[in-house]
Amino acid sequence: MRRQSSGGLRFIRRAAVVLLLAIAGTLAFVKFEYGRGTLFPDIGSENQDGLDKLEKLIRLDYPPGNVAVAANGHVYFNYHPIARAGRFSEATVFEWVGGKITPFPSMEMQKEFQGSFGLAIDHQNRLWMIEPASFDFQHTRLWAFDPNTRQKVHFFEFPGKEAQFAQDLRVTADGKYVLLADTGIMRFTAPKLIVYSVEDHSFRTALAGHPCTSPEDWLMRTPFGVYRMAAGLVNVAVGLDGIDISPDQNWVYLAAMTNSHLCRVPLSSVLDTMIAPSDLANKVEVLGRKPLSDGITSDKSGQVILTDVEHGGLMTFDPETRNAATLVRSRDVIWADGVATGPDGSLYFTDSALSAYIGQLAGPPDKTKLVEHRPYFIYRLRH
Q: Are 256 and 228 in contact (CB under 8 A)?
């Protein structure tokens, strides 16, 4: 009996060693595959002139996500869905006019929202917003509202897990198509550029898994250190997070967050249903170096504006010279997130402060964590 017990004990020990080695090997693989990277070089600079023009426009109790500005100067914004402020606030989507904040389109409508992300105002003066299914919801939902009547004018719910990680959107000048940026999840699923038809509610993937839409192996720095998750095993790597359509409607700009280059592709080709994603990939053009970015917009002159996540500010990119330059950077800004151009050329951007409260497994922070970093701000860089 003692010999059998001794043999059984040796078996258990060997099994435990094998299990530990397997776990260690798995962790090592995950670290190598998803935790690799190098620090991104700073391609910007300080800009005192920009800092002098920067103002904290809107003070908030919870982190803002995205922002859109109408032709009349009204500002629309939402609370960032990662913060899940809806657990503590009755409203999550707002309109700001002359210093006053009101729920948009109404307080009653707030109950219908599941966590809005991207916002955009089209040439028909409709406010669009996307609610991705990736935040534990069953379907991605697309909304449009008339700011004047505050009525819903369009709604679509994507089937299954389609457009699951769609987080940004832009609308063509004729109002017929909505372009969606689907980030994918880290390096596990491919990012996509999706085209949605307003007229017949159809949609298709125009581009998927292209190097310009995919994350690269960069380590993103924040005021709290390198941005890692899962106890340091996984670096934050985000694909196609920002898109914009050039004012002349010739180009779609592609800005993946942890990608070092700004790219573009002809809008006419994106809308052409006869062009397969593999063929459209051949039409993508690399323009030049950009910062690790989140939000993107264009001004009336055609300059592309990108948020500089690592340095708390904005950079401008000239499509003609293909050079980027710093507009502003501030140590007060933790995470420059959404950005929009106002009617007078001023730039509005949110500080979602993501890296201050996001959990190691991307879970929603508790209220104590969110309160700890109050106040949160939407900034305006005066023209």
A: no
15-21's contacts with Cβ under 8 Å and 24+ in sequence apart are: none
Q: Give pTM, 2 decimals.
A: 0.90
Residue 336's alpha-carbon distances to 127, 137, 372, in angstroms, are: 22, 26, 19
DSSP string, 184-241: -STTTS--EEEEEETTT--EEEEEES-TTTS--SEEPEETTEE-EETTTTEE----EE
Q: Which of 173, 172, 158, 169 is nearest to 204 (CA)?
A: 158
Residue 333: burial class (beta carbons within 10 Å; 0-12, 13-18, 19+): buried
Residue 179 vs residues 87, 175, 232, 256, 275: alpha-carbon distances, Å? 30, 11, 34, 15, 16
Q: What is the pLDDT of residues 246-302, one digit of tens each?
A: 999 999 999 999 999 999 999 999 999 999 999 999 999 999 999 999 999 999 999
Instruction: CATH number for 39-381: choose from 2.120.10.30, 1.20.1250.20, 2.30.40.10, 3.40.50.720.
Output: 2.120.10.30
* pLDDT over 70 percentage in the chain: 86
Chain position carrying tokens 């002098």: 52
Helix (H) or strand (E) holding 254: strand 251-256
Q: Are strands 347-351 and 376-381 parallel, antiparallel or unpaired?
A: antiparallel
How many residues in the chain? Answer: 383
> What are the tens digits of pLDDT across the range 88-128?
999 999 999 999 999 999 999 999 999 999 999 999 999 99
